[in-house]
Design goal:
binds coenzyme A, 7-stranded mixed beta sheet, 37% strand, alpha+beta, single chain, 4 helices, Aminopeptidase
């Protein structure tokens, strides 16, 4: 019998199983404008966000297949808009893990009373992410032209994507 996919809150004890996923994504440099030289400790400090933000893992049994974090996009007068990031293990992509993580992020943002969710930097080349977000109701507000240096495609745009809650 195959185990069910669950999304649950992550703690420090999960980091050793989250780090390989984050490390893969940041060293590929295809989707996130993060420093690819980041150490495990630096990445842990930025990925495991403190409350009232939240970091989750998508698990099947003991296996961590993906991770997301979520938080207020801006402090003070901007803190009614949420934001977040997600990463799925390369071997687990295309099987609904990303959809489960974004659905969890949307449910959290609604529960927490946010007015909207804003993704600040979705690379134009990231068709999977764009299709996934659009299928859940996100729209593109605009594109920062050439703002991301893709290792293969060169300078590509970064979309700002938005979901009104
Ligand atoms: C983007 C990402 C999070 C998507 O996660 P995923 O688990 O692969 O996504 P899902 O399996 O839930 O698929 C979501 C949708 O994407 C599309 N999709 C997924 N894999 C695809 C593939 N190989 N080819 C074409 N479309 C695909 C499907 O339309 C799918 O919709 P469906 O549920 O109606 O079938 C994942 O690819 C990833 O971690 N990429 C690297 C990091 C990243 O880009 N993060 C987001 C930055 S904005």
């Amino acid at each position: 019998m195959s185990l069910e996919l669950t999304v649950r809150e992550a703690g420090e004890e999960d980091w050793p199983r989250i780090w390989p996923i984050v490390h893969d994504v940041i060293t590929e440099q295809q989707t996130f404008a993060y420093d690819p030289e980041m150490t495990s400790a630096e990445a842990e400090r930025s990925w495991l966000v403190p409350a009232p933000g939240r970091t989750v893992v998508a698990v099947r049994g003991d296996e961590v297949l993906g991770t997301a974090n979520m938080y207020a996009n801006r402090p003070g007068p901007g803190n009614h808009v949420a934001s977040g990031s997600l990463m799925v293990a390369r071997t687990a992509r295309g099987a609904g893990v990303g959809r489960a993580l974004v659905s969890d992020l949307i449910a959290w943002a609604r529960r927490a009373g946010f007015a909207a969710i804003q993704f600040n930097a979705v690379a134009e080349t990231n068709g999977t992410a764009i299709r996934l977000y659009e299928s859940l109701g996100f729209v593109t507000l605009g594109v920062a032209p050439g703002a991301f240096r893709h290792p293969v495609a060169g300078r590509v745009g970064l979309r700002i994507m938005w979901l009104e809650l």
